Every structure is written in structure tokens, then in C-alpha cells.
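Hi F.,

I've been meaning to write this up properly since the lab meeting, where we talked about keeping a consistent format for the predictions we share between groups. The idea is simple: the sequence comes first, exactly as it goes in, then the C-alpha cells exactly as they come out, then a line or two of notes. No screenshots and no reformatting. I'm using this chain as the first example so we have something concrete to point to.
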Amino acid sequence: MQIMLSLADSEAAKGYLATTIPDVKSSHRVEALARALGYATNAALRADLSTASSIRTVSAEAFVSYLEDRGFESAEWVVLHALAKVAIRRVMDAEPNLTTYGILSSIGPDEGAQRDALLTDYFVRKFMLAWEFVSRCEKAPEFLAGWTSWDLKQRAESYHHRISGRGGEHIAPGCLIAAFLAAGFRIRKNPDVTSDVEVAVGESCLDAFVPREYLALPLGPGRAASLPVREPIHVMGARAAV
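Output, unedited:
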């Protein structure tokens, strides 16, 4: 999965890690984060991000491996949770009307509370689940006709139903929108529903997430469900976060 990251973002992630794993030496935390972001050293991370933001592919396994080699136990969700909070904050800065409900036309006191809630552990976890789904999706030059973020939210929930073997994995609409934005997907407002957006995502990506029990159902406007089902690969370990 990918994240757009600046030098300031990386420093914020280091701060979150200091809170989450305070017993790990600071030098080990920052070097482990660098490995998770595909850099050979923290110095290389700083040198690269000091010039411009960069889209980085995240490897939680590299983070855990680095710490384990130095005698510290950790878990993949630790670095993913830290980077998720950074990603959400970046998206919130860019989208002042983003809330757990989606992107609203205006923000009042009630909506403001739902905006602040995006950075709570509960919704960070929901973002992580959305982020895992989005990591399977392909960017496209055009917006997918007939599909909104609400439709994609349902697809994301079905995806997690398949990997968990149980239902009830709710993903807040705003968390899914935030995950698409964090991964660099283009969005545009849905003129028919205030909080929804359309996403420039490839249709073939959606086909991979059709639950087996839904294969007899139509996939959207004018599309039949005669599609192969590819097995998902669970990459995030987000369920360990709470």
C-alpha cells in the first residue's frame, strides 16, 4: 500500500511511534520507520523528503524485522497506525469539510465533532481497513460511471467480510474517501449526494472484490456478474490495532 509523505509527515509519524512504543530506542524507531518506507537509512529518508513529498510504498514487515533483529518485539499495526494518523491529518488539511460521514458542504458543531473523530483510534482503525482495500485498487484516467464512494464503501466491507469470514465490518464513508485521497486517487463531488464523491478507479479492480455469494448479482449499471474471483491477500493486520 502507498502513502504520500512529506518530511513533516515523517516527523509526525516518529512522534506517534514514540508514544506507541516508548521502550524502543529512538534511533531504532526512526531507522525502522525508514525501512518501512523503503529507505536504507533515516538519513536517506530525510535527504529525499527534504526536497519534495514522495509517494512511498509501505512495508510493515520491514519495520517489524528491523526491530526484531535488534531484540525488540513489535507488530505490523504499530507502524501502520502511525502512518494512518499522518495520512488522515494530511487529507484533513487538504479537505476542510471531510468528516466520518464524507465530504460535506459545510461544517457545524455536530459535523465538527465527526471531523475531529477521524483521528480517534476507532476511526483510524476504520481508515486502516479502507486503506487495505484501496491498496488493491488501480488508478484510472476517468471516473467510474455509476459508482460513488458509498458503493465503494460497500465493496470494501464485502472485501473484509471475505478475509475475516464474518460480517459486520463497518467502514465509515469518510474513512474510505480519506484512504483514496491518501493513496493519490482523484475524486470529484457527487452532485446528487452531498457527502459522496466519485473516484477515478479502474473497474477491473472492483471485479476482484466480488464476494462469492454475490456473483449472481449485477455489479452496477449494465454489467453482469460473470467475473472470476481472485483470492485476496491480507497485507495490513489492521485487526490487531484494537
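Notes:
The chain has a mean pLDDT of 83.
The longest strand covers residues 2-5.

If this format works for you, I'll send the rest the same way.

G.
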